[in-house]
Amino acid sequence: MADPLISVILPVYNGRPYLQEAIQGILNQTFEDFEFIIINDGSKDGSKEVLEEFAEHDHRIRVVHQKNQGITPSLNRGLKLARGR
Q: For each successive 10 residues of the chain (85 residues), what is the average pLDDT?
């Protein structure tokens, strides 16, 4: 698979109540040449299961789980993983 045109990075920490709407908002875009990197920053509210469910059904989603480090390290990790042109 060729590298996507853009990379979308979403850091998540205990965001379960908002995850479905946030993720669906990105996936529903008419532009489709993107990868969606979601950094689970040590959530303890069931976010992990929601993220894994979405990742199973859409190949553009990559979920990374890590211990809680905060938003800036999470975004930096996403940037390091990004393959967007």
A: 91 97 97 97 98 97 98 98 96
Using a 10 angstrom Cβ sphere, with 0-12 exposed, 13-18 middle and 19 or more buried, the burial of residue 12 is buried
Q: Print burial letters for 35-48: b (CB count within 10 Å at least 16), e (below 16).
A: bbbbbbbbbeeebb
9: nearest Cα among 75, 55, 80, 53:
75
Residue 61 forms beta bridges with which residues? 36
Among residues 29, 23, 45, 37, the alpha carbon closest in space to that of 82 is found at 37
pLDDT for res 14: 98
